[in-house]
Amino acid sequence: MKAIIAKSYGGPEVLEYTDRPDPKVGPDSFLIRVKAAGVNPVDWKIVAGYLDPMMDGHFPLTPGWDVAGVVEAVGADATEYAVGDEVIGYVRKDEVQHGTYAELVAAPVRTLARKPASLSWQQAAGLPLAGLTAYQSLKRVGVQAGETVLVHAAAGGVGSLATQIAVAQGARVIGTASERNHDFLRSLGAEPVTYGDGLADRVRALAPEGVDAAVDFVGGGVVEVSQELLKDRSRVASIADGEVKNKGGHMVWVRPDTADLTALGALADAGKLSVPVEAILPLSEAAEAFRRSMAGRARGKIVLEVS
């Protein structure tokens, strides 16, 4: 099979498009013929070595955790899907080596769910990691219908999904974003506010009694701002503030979860969740996909298409 590999830690320049052996398929895993692989910031951070203190990496290393594709073979005790089934997955394993930037990937059953019928392959590939991050962050702070939730970086890849999920759950969403993204947030059902100095006052102007929950997808001190506004200071979750637990909130590190991924697919098929795709590149151009992700300006997902 063709795959992207890195033979050492480094930047986009270490990525190679080359031939690799087909993956071995464990007893509770499925071999997936990849149609598209989502690109996430964690992918280039892994290749840069940033996650080495917490996860073992083995070279040559194929990056990628998001996938959409078709079941090509099943493991000895894998019964949940059949050959030909269309699936999506957040294929994070305990160690980093055999990722989704490849024509084939072996995916444990715990990482997979059925592909939403309403999404294209490219949209479906962009859903798992970002969607699960958003969904699990909202779940961690217990967002309920009728509550007001503050979403930081609400126009970003994770934030835009969190905004849609919270709206679908019946919550009122106040979302932070630059002014150029305010109309986009309104189209998702949120009330936009500009981030930066004076944020707490701008939120209070919309919600004088404060907010019920907050989710942070950007870092930079917004946990403290959120706690000024929260009725219960513990109801804040962050993926970006390493000190959030010491501040009384919740750290979220997204987990593979079939039930959560299935719930996201149901929202998509009900017309309540869309996955904006900004760029589709061939697998061979993974280095360019890394560069675009590292620039940090993409509003929609960057996706690698596998022929």
| Count of DSSP H/I helices | 9
The CATH class of the largest domain is Alpha Beta
- How would you characterize the largest beta sheet? 7 strands, mixed
Tell me the name of the CATH homologous superfamily of the largest domain. Medium-chain alcohol dehydrogenases, catalytic domain
* Low-pLDDT residue spans: none
Label the CATH architecture of the largest domain. Alpha-Beta Complex
Based on Cα principal axes, name the global outline: globular
How many whole angstroms does the radius of gyration measure? Answer: 19 Å
Q: Per CATH, what is the topology of the largest domain?
A: Quinone Oxidoreductase, Chain A, domain 1
Whole-number total of structural domains: 2
- Topology, number of strands: 17
End-to-end Cα distance: 11 Å
- How much of the sequence is in beta strands? 25-35%
By secondary-structure content and strand pairing, the structural class works out as alpha/beta
Give a written overview of the molecule:
InterPro entries: ADH-like_N (IPR013154), Chloroplast_QOR (IPR052733), ER (IPR020843), GroES-like_sf (IPR011032), NAD(P)-bd_dom_sf (IPR036291). This is NADP-dependent oxidoreductase. Keywords: Oxidoreductase. One of its GO terms (molecular function) is oxidoreductase activity. It comes from Streptomyces mooreae. This protein is α/β, with parallel strands linked by helices. It folds into 2 domains: about 1-125 and about 275-305, Alpha-Beta Complex (Quinone Oxidoreductase, Chain A, domain 1); about 130-250, Rossmann fold. The protein is built from 9 helices and 17 strands. The chain has helices spanning about 40-50, 120-125, 130-140, 155-170, 180-185, 200-205, 220-230, 260-270, 285-295; strands at about 1-5, 15-20, 30-40, 55-60, 65-75, 85-90, 95-100, 105-110, 110-115, 150, 170-175, 190-195, 215, 235-240, 250, 275-280, 300-305. The strands form 4 sheets. Strands 3, 5, 6, 8, 9, 16 and 17 form a 7-stranded mixed β-sheet that branches. Helix 7 links the parallel strand 13 and strand 14. Helix 3 (about 130-140) packs across helix 4 and helix 6 packs parallel to helix 7 (about 220-230). The longest helix is centred in the middle third of the chain and has 13 residues, at about 130-140. The N and C termini lie close together (about 10 Å). The model has no long low-confidence stretch (mean pLDDT about 95).
